[in-house]
Design a protein that fits this description.
- The complex is a heterodimer of chains A (213) and B (353).
- Chain A has 213 residues and is α/β, with parallel strands linked by helices.
- Chain A has helices spanning 21-38, 41-46, 83-97, 126-136, 152-156, 170-187, and strands spanning 6-13, 47-54, 58-66, 112-117, 140-146, 162-165, 192-193, 209-211.
- A seven-stranded mixed β-sheet of chain A has the order 3-2-1-4-5-6-8, sandwiched between helices.
- The longest helix of chain A is centred in the N-terminal third of the chain and has 18 residues, at 21-38.
- Chain B is an alpha+beta fold.
- In chain B, 26% of the residues lie in helices and 23% in strands.
- Chain B has eight helices and 15 strands.
- Chain B starts with 11 loop residues before the first strand and ends in a 7-residue tail after the last strand.
- The chains are: A alpha/beta (213), B alpha+beta (353).
- The A-B interface holds A 1, 3-5, 38-42, 44-46, 68, 100-110, 188-196, 199, 201 and B 23, 33, 35-38, 95-96, 99-100, 102, 125-127, 190, 193, 233-243, 246, 277, 280-281, 283-284, 304-305, 333-336.
């Protein structure tokens, strides 16, 4: 008798280059996302949020939590960009947290994942996990290249949906998280064909954010 | 839903206030954040653009549109009876579409004819811009084409294969109509994507076909409940492997055909996933669902975790159509899709619940 959930994961780069305004903007954006979703009855009933970060290693800061019970976390930025560990952790939490449909129960909706990074991976293992994510497609993944130093090609190894923030100003992050909120609301209402590019229908990105071809 | 037979009751249209509302907020107490509540908004776009009306009439002549009764119908329903069979169908816009001012994307249809009937339910894909038209066209054309095939020499009481071919002709007619409509209107096939579940009776045989999700349940005189057909199980919710009129879908629909002797059938229900999902798995919960329709709700929460505000029996109500529409307003957290349910009963056969 469990509720069918729309799991939403935010995997954020918390490396040293995100110190200061960028990580504060991510925190603020998550708070804004939470407030937006609290205003949507469908999201309250079905959206579940989780926040993960990667720097020297990856952590799940907030496990999958229903919107009404979610507490926007404090985030710190320092260290390297262990992108591979972030992807590995994503695969691990999918195994642990997601409920799949069986003959006895309806499973979750396919998860939405937003991966934010402002730089290039500093580990060597990331291609292995990127390939697993791309081939298995356990979620609808949107990768966000934050600013002009982000490694777009690395993000493209994870997912075909890569968007680019032109700068890392607070307003740019604010616009991005409004896009996340709109994506969550839209995804919760739409059914897609399994073989139809994932069936995800995203809203148009806001000004300052472009889709990488 | 058109009048095809003097035994058919007038279709019901339930128009509800459609003025868009500001989002009201219910305060739960000082320690808890305010929670928004569901609203009801009228769609701003027409159900069918005017420039396509003639094309719709061409591919689905006689199709009754939801907005042809003055106000946009929040829900519709129809009851019909003949030759010892009673049919009841209702389709209700889900809370999510109502809140967002979107059209209902489900459709249902029943037709009676000499020695038989045909029924269909369909659920337009949420990602398809005009799936409401797809669902309506599919149910309308499939049922009419099956009736045509069964009445005019395509099937014979002694020929089960011919009966099956009559159902297949209904399926192919629906697929063809969708594709023709897309071509006429300059739409992509994906814009009309819909599931389809069809059942028909003739000469003592019952047949079913299905593409996409949704569910059927057969209630036998021996007390058993079975699912003649079911949609494929996909890894995650809300993902459908095949939609009409996509390439390959008609083959899936035709291959799904099941034909049974109808003599021991007490009832058959057809449901879109807006009903199946809250009552999932249907193999376990279809029985309690049907019991609710027969006898009313006798406890606050059903075994499926569904809460019903309409507690009286539906099938024996003075106005079963209205009762079914009200019953379709049951609540279950996170389950806010459009809902369509068709209940077909053989009067002389009872299901010992």
């Amino acid at each position: 008798m469990s509720t069918r959930r729309l799991p939403v994961y935010i995997l954020a780069d918390a490396s040293g280059s995100m110190q200061g305004t960028p990580i504060e903007s991510v925190k603020s954006g998550i708070r804004q996302l939470h407030r937006d979703l609290l205003g949507d009855p469908q999201a309250i009933e079905s959206a579940y949020l989780s926040v993960l970060t990667f720097s020297n290693s990856a952590q799940q800061i907030v496990p999958l939590t229903e919107v009404a019970m979610f507490n926007p976390p404090e985030l710190q930025a320092s260290g390297q960009t262990n992108f591979g560990d972030g992807l590995r952790l994503l695969l691990e939490v999918f195994e642990r947290e997601l409920v799949r449909t069986t003959a006895d129960q309806k499973g979750d909706w396919r998860p939405l994942v937003f991966i934010l990074s402002d730089g290039a991976p500093t580990d060597v293992d990331w291609p292995v996990y990127a390939q697993q994510l791309r081939e298995r497609r356990p979620a609808n993944i949107i990768a966000v290249a934050c600013g002009d130093q982000a490694d777009v090609e690395a993000l493209k190894q994870v997912t075909e949906i890569v968007i680019q923030m032109q700068d890392m100003s607070p307003d740019a992050f604010k616009a991005f998280f409004r896009f996340v909120s709109a994506s969550v609301k839209q995804t919760s209402a739409k059914v897609g064909a399994v073989g139809d590019g994932g069936g995800i229908t995203l809203p148009p990105p806001p000004p300052g954010i472009t889709i990488v071809p | 839903m058109p009048h095809e037979n003097p035994n058919v009751d007038s279709p019901h249209s339930l128009g509800l206030p459609g003025a868009p509302l500001a989002t009201p907020v219910a305060a739960l107490g000082a320690a808890e954040p305010p929670r928004p509540i569901w609203t009801i908004a009228t769609p701003s776009a027409p159900w069918c653009p005017d420039e396509w009306s003639a094309h719709l009439d061409a591919v689905a002549p006689g199709l009754v549109r939801p907005d042809q009764h003055g106000a946009l119908a929040e829900a519709t329903g129809l009851r019909a009876a003949r030759d010892g069979w009673s049919l009841l169908v209702a389709s209700r816009r889900g809370r999510l579409h109502a809140h967002r001012g979107d059209h209902r994307e489900d459709a249902g249809q029943v037709l009676l004819f000499n020695q038989g009937w045909c029924a269909a339910v369909a659920d337009g894909a949420g990602s398809a811009t005009y799936s409401r038209l797809g669902a309506a066209i599919a149910t309308h054309v499939a049922t009419h084409a099956v009736r045509e095939a069964l009445l005019h020499g395509h099937a014979d009481n002694a020929e089960s294969a011919l009966f099956g071919r009559a159902l297949e002709s209904g399926a192919t007619a629906a697929n063809r109509a969708l594709r023709e409509f897309a071509t006429r209107c300059g739409l992509a096939l994906r814009d009309l994507r819909t599931t389809l579940l069809v059942a028909a009776l003739h000469g003592g045989r019952m047949g079913l076909l299905q593409v996409g999700d949704g569910a059927s349940a057969w209630f036998d005189a021996d007390g058993t409940v079975s699912q003649p057909l079911s949609g494929p199980i996909t890894e995650f919710s809300g993902e459908v492997a095949h939609f009409l009129p996509d390439d390959g879908a008609i083959e899936q629909l035709v291959q799904s055909l099941v034909v049974r002797d109808a003599s021991s059938c007490a009832a058959l229900i057809l449901a879109t996933d807006g009903v199946e999902d809250p009552w999932y798995p249907f193999t376990r919960h279809a029985g309690p669902l049907y019991s609710q329709l027969l006898h009313g709700v006798n406890d606050a929460a059903s075994s499926a975790g569904v809460t019903s505000s309409h507690r009286a029996p539906v099938l024996t109500a003075p106005d079963p159509v209205h009762a079914l529409i009200e019953w379709l307003a049951f609540e279950k957290r996170g389950e806010n899709d459009d809902r369509t349910l068709c209940v077909i009963r053989q009067d002389a056969v009872s299901w010992p619940a």
